[in-house]
Amino acid sequence: MSAFRQSVEAMIPALRRYARALARDADIADDLVQDTLVRALRSERLFLGGDVRSWLYTILTNLNKNRRRSLARRPQFMPLLDNNPDASGTEAEGRDIARALATLVEEQRSVLLLVMLEGLSYREVADIQGVPIGTVMSRLARARAHVKASLEGERTALRRVK
Amino acid sequence: MTDRNIPVTEDELHAYVDNELPAERCGDVEAWLAAHPDDAARVQSWRAMAEALHARYDSVIDETVPKRLEIERLVQQPRKWVYGAVAATLAAFIVGGGTGWFARGAATAPSAFQNLTVHAIEAHRLYVVEVRHPVEVPGSERSHLQQWLTKRCGWVVRAPELTGAGLKLVGGRLLPGSAGPASFMMYESASGERFTIYTAKSDAEATQMRYAAEGKESTLFWADDGVVYAVVSTGVDRGRLTQIAQAVYDQMEKKG
């Protein structure tokens, strides 16, 4: 296997994690990863060195943006009640963070995940999204504020019920 | 040395948490946080957020990578890979009688396609029963139909020549799809059996041919070059549907 293919292969687990957090649905997430890989492998000869990792995140981010655009006009279905009182603390926390992510606009969710989950630098994220670093930083700040408010809001709501 | 009296900005707090802050400024930020509990609490909440994200999603890293994402499977020249898969699908469809194989194929169809095939089947049902107004543009105006649909849809819409399969173009119409316009074309045989071809923008660049059925309608569908094609028929005649889908696929392939 070529060095290029090996570096693509090594990225599959991380791409799946990013896609899962980005798209929430596991099947859709793997569809995104598959399309990303097909595209990357098809362009192997066009790839003139550089950072394979950033490039793969870029493809996946763009594919997801297109997908979101095509879904934009479809009504969103959210479960009315998915609070499982028996859920353990960690499980409930995981659900909270997933729900908070879902309320973010696309670019903010992508910035937040690339920085906080995938550990990319501001510079890399700026290149991936094709925007200046300042834009990345303001998106990140807004995303963090929004998620924080969303998590705290849920906790307040729970306290009120009790 | 930087002046401790320069207030720490919110940007710097974020950069501090993300290890993007120049090392020489970190001490200032730490001193600032010790003196500003509100900011310290915010920084703490961001760290907790990162931990929650990792706690929720890191398990994906340890999952076994699904077979469909294996590099070895994906590197066989994507286009040929798709074509090979189509041929294999068609062979299984005819030879195997399909059932078991296709039950599997349908179950693994990506969710993104579900809506699309539903639309294609609904459009088929709605219009094949029409006697007087099955289409907007009749088959006698083939080139106008192709130009019009291509212009409105934004991808090349061709009405394939299916006379070899005993089908005549009835005509076509423009439909609202789930993500913009969709094209719809109807064909008819001398005995009155009707087939429709639905195309719409696809999220997937290229996929294998898949089968889906609902009630009496069944469809063979695939994506190519960012467009999904669905050939729909009523009353399952596997060999026949396969023959038509193959003819449509071959002509779309030549187009590019």
Automatic annotation (TrEMBL), chain A:
It comes from the Bacteria. Residues 9-60 form the PhyR sigma2 domain. The keyword Nuclease does not apply. Keywords: DNA-binding, Sigma factor, Transcription, Transcription regulation. One of its GO terms (molecular function) is DNA binding. GO terms for biological process: DNA-templated transcription initiation. SUPFAM superfamilies: Sigma2 domain of RNA polymerase sigma factors, Sigma3 and sigma4 domains of RNA polymerase sigma factors. Gene3D superfamilies: 1.10.1740.10, Winged helix-like DNA-binding domain superfamily/Winged helix DNA-binding domain. Residues 96-146 form the RNA polymerase sigma factor 70 region 4 type domain. Belongs to the sigma-70 factor family. ECF subfamily. This is RNA polymerase sigma factor.
TrEMBL record, chain B:
The keyword Membrane applies. The chain crosses the membrane at residues 81-103. Keywords: Membrane, Transmembrane, Transmembrane helix. This is Anti-sigma factor.
